[in-house]
Amino acid sequence: MTRASMGARCLLRGTLGRFRRGPRGLRATFGRFPRSHDAGTLRAMSNRLIVSLCFLALAACGKGPNTGTGGGTGGGGGLPPVSGATYYKDVLPITQVSCNGCHTEGGIAPFALDTYEAAKTHAALMSDAVKNKRMPPWHAAKDCGGQFVGDRTLTDQQIATLEGWFLDGAQEGNPADAPAPVDATSEQLAKVDFEGKMSVTYTPTMKDDYRCFIVDPALTQTKTVTGYDIAPGSKKVVHHVILYRVPRVAAVAKDGEDAKAGWECFGGADINDAAALGAWAPGGAAVTYPARTGIRLSSDQVLAMQVHYNTDNGSDTDQTSVKLMYGTGTEQEAYLLPVVAASFAIPPNAQDYKHTQSFDNPTKGNLNVPIKLWGFLPHMHTRGKAISIKSADTCLVDVPNWDFHWQTQYFRRAPFIMGADAKVSMNCSWDNPSNSTIRWGEGTSDEMCFAFIYATL
């Protein structure tokens, strides 16, 4: 079979990351994405995990369009506002759990809500945002996937409490009524073991400029990455960032190959044996992986930081940075497995056009064992309407009202066990208001039906 026909077969059948054994032991592998489906540039499958994922966010806080909280119907059309609510007795128990992971001093939100003074200042904004389901951001359906870690959903009663507190003048109440403190930094790293940045500054030279840069943790032994935090140097031009772990020798050979900083890297890191480690997009916060799991980073690997620059708002100079948190080394090794359903063609002016593809257990034909599915990061572009992942009759994640600006990674409190002979199916739907057929592609005018699955054996 030729490389081109292998690539076409991969695309038409859909693909899910694979496990195989190699010189370093068990590895997750995956064929390379097609850069543009309708241009016919189908890439061959190869033993590498190279992921093209545009404009994702692993957490969702800060500023964005209407979202909906996923639970209840509170506020307009829900329960009437609660009378007599005070900050310490009624409001703080809500905000410290569902708001302060982002809205805290040093957090990624534009203002804090972690003191009475701060909450009172923004009481009107807070009431309006929760009543109209713009905050807190959470899109996963409540009747699918069991319990997800960090669910920010507010109940009708909580929404009515916040609305009533504002209408009653945002009363402080008695500090003695305050609940016991909880961790308000759930979307920040518990510790930082490595902090690095692009070794040079870079100014993008075209509208959509994809560049990869080396960030070297300089490890002397293998570490397990249990969390990371990516900080763009210039949010004016940084559209998204994907971290790959790649062989140091190969990355050094690629660096500066076109006489500019880093190297061009559409569609992935453009290096054999590249494997995804994490990502950032607007609204993204730090990510902590499920307890006692993590992704291995060896001493002969470096980070290849793929940055997608977009100059629609003008050019600027960037120097993006990243923080890593390491575990003890005893964690279960995890993998980010990409699920790609790329063989769709959305007709012109179509409404609620649906596409479904099924995928085998990624160990089938090799290890043939069950795997544990811990987390899901669904991804579509701006015409996406809904996306879900199921295994037989079990719903794993369902985002019924897709919002391109709020893309969240959902981690289960307990993993779903996917049997050795089981399948998962991914279901996507779109609206296409244009007069042209829309296919798979990297631009926002193209579309995707994609997800990362965070998995362990």
From TrEMBL:
Alphabetical list of InterPro entries matching this protein: Cu2_ascorb_mOase-like_C (IPR014784), Cu2_ascorb_mOase_N (IPR000323), Cu2_ascorb_mOase_N_sf (IPR036939), Cu2_monoox_C (IPR024548), Cyt_c-like_dom (IPR009056), DBH-like (IPR000945), PHM/PNGase_F_dom_sf (IPR008977)
Keywords for this protein: Disulfide bond, Glycoprotein, Heme, Iron, Metal-binding
Domain of life: Bacteria
GO terms assigned for molecular function: copper ion binding; dopamine beta-monooxygenase activity; electron transfer activity; heme binding
Domain Cytochrome c per the UniProt entry, residue ranges: 79-170
Keyword Metal-binding listed: yes
Keyword tRNA processing recorded: no
Name used for this protein in its record: Cytochrome c domain-containing protein
Organism annotation: Archangium gephyra
Lineage: Bacteria, Pseudomonadati, Myxococcota, Myxococcia, Myxococcales
